[in-house]
Design goal:
This protein has one domain. 69% of the residues lie in helices and 3% in strands. The longest helix has 29 residues.
Length: 138
Amino acid sequence: MNNSTGRSSGQGGLILFSQGSATLLVARGLLVALLLSFIFLALYTLLLYLSPLSEAYVPYLIYGGTLLCIFLGSLYVGKRTEEKGWLRGGLTGLIYVLTLMLFCFLFNVSIEPGINILTKLFLGFAFGTLGGILGINS
């Protein structure tokens, strides 16, 4: 049975989240993205340990892996929402970047202030928005 937005009220036998649980959905998407990041970091560590790969490539691998995790976490959110997938996905990406900044503060890791932070926030929101859009339309 279809609702007014054209999306079915259930997907694979599961009832989709209602409007009231959007915060919970974004939090679950954030958790998915953070868990995937942990897995990717473990794989990068193993790759560096077992291969002759130079450590010069590590920042690029981590940055690319971070964007991929934001995208996948937001795709998770988009697939489980009925509306505003772009916004919920974007918020997932934005909160992910803010969470990483909080971890840097808690563990006393230096962050370069300025345009670098704004770029990370923008890219987090952009990749999150893309994941949310593709998730809700798939």
